[in-house]
């Protein structure tokens, strides 16, 4: 990952084009998937280059030493070319496979170090293959390479107990390591694919959502301003000082001028929300801003913008309904929610306040809770549905926690199988109590992993008590192995077989569920201290071979640390890039939505209402005239029809606008009932039928129409004094 926060484009093969889409905000097809592939491939290729160094470096004085180093040099060139994108990752895997078999085929010394070198080579190859290849192909590649290496050692080395033990253990190590890596890779790829799909779905829905929001806002605006004013005029309730009448009419005219503003700008900071609230006459109080800022900082940028928009909407409701100039925004420490409170007049029906926020909340994946009673104020709680509270690493890193259970199960199975192999092969050399010691260490490790995974699933991070449990487990295991499980000879039975795998598994799980340095650091330090102590207490001469026995575990832990760091950095970079792209897309969609609503003809219908408001603003006394009140009542009815339509129903809106244009000169009132938009064919037939009824109606008649669906298709019902029996029903 490059330092500027951009995604590293130096991925193998065609991934570079998929990861970095330079200028087109519509190309978000595979940003997460390509990023995960890039991280996994680069990790595998890095392991391919570095992992063979250890087994090669311990082959002191072997006749094939120079030849193997030459083979590694060729493999190194292939690996570097693959990292730079000039060769396929498969080429590096093939050369790596050949090098592993060559190491086994040239092993002629049956000691622990050389046998362990073969095991480490097979383990690392299996893990690397699982990061690049699909699971079945990776397991097949690991199995074939391991069997070839085992066959070579069986043919070249004497059939001693030590050789037999390693030959049986090597496939278990390799296949279990490959299976664990395959689970991690497959899960990350699956989560990345779902993230890409969600991002595409969000972008595809933005325009429809913009149209829906604009239509809903237009309806609310008309209802809160012009419709209420015209209704008051029609019923003679707009009385009092003439200057108040003029001010209200002018305010409604200003509202009509902004009816096309969808208001979907991307919010980035809480200060912007506070400024918007101040413009509405609401002062925002935040007693302790630290928890609020921490809550917002723990969200990805795109999610943060949506939460800020919901806070702004809650404050807008305070300005509209609470009748108080102050609102409070607060969040408890380590909370996963933010609250907006006021001490206003409250509301007997909280659903009325919740409805305006439900559409945005449903799209965002947020739970909205409203507590209000008449005269007691209102409290709005906004709770985002996030997998790992407080995590700043994004969706990909949040997905590493659930992997821990599967990895733990696989590695505990490996630990048990290796112990069984050692006990069966080394029955005579097994010290007293070693079986019970190994079983007890396995049980302690399993219990510790259950505690770690369970705590992480509940809170998203590990607490001090869990770290104490880990420390107690490591200490108890070290004491058990040191006092009851130390054999008289060097090898896997002394360290690796009983405690090395358990320690590595514990470190990997902690890194997966909580990658913070202050958590991972102490765990790794405890494991290193325990391992060092066991090495010093082990049989004489084993200290020099201990690094060889533990190198695979060290490399695996280092690989997981690198992978998690890579995912954190990449996830943040992609989140920021998608935020920028979404801003561009939202601006385009807002413009498109505005044009779409301008084309539905509602603006032409508002001209008559605006003209009436201008007339009253110029002559407030006109509100006493019966003709003005009749015009106001009729225009109020027309606008209520428009405001009551389903949101984002352009065909139905155009139909109603056309019928209003026909009804207005005939002074006919209209009303409509419709649950959803209609198609062009239905609208054309309905226009013809209802227009004829309007023309045949007398002035001041009321014409009502409704669209209904049943088994036979859509039907139109018209209720009007001028039709036979007052009701006309027709299939459309």
TrEMBL record:
InterPro entries xref list: HATPase_C_sf (IPR036890)
Keywords annotated in UniProt: Kinase, Membrane, Transferase, Transmembrane, Transmembrane helix
Transmembrane segments: 31-54, 66-83, 90-109, 115-133, 140-159, 171-188, 403-425, 437-457, 464-483, 495-513, 520-538, 544-563
Family matches, as Gene3D superfamilies: Histidine kinase-like ATPase, C-terminal domain
MF terms (GO), sorted A to Z: kinase activity
Domain of life: Bacteria
Keyword set includes Membrane: yes
Keyword Transmembrane: yes
Designated name of the protein: Histidine kinase
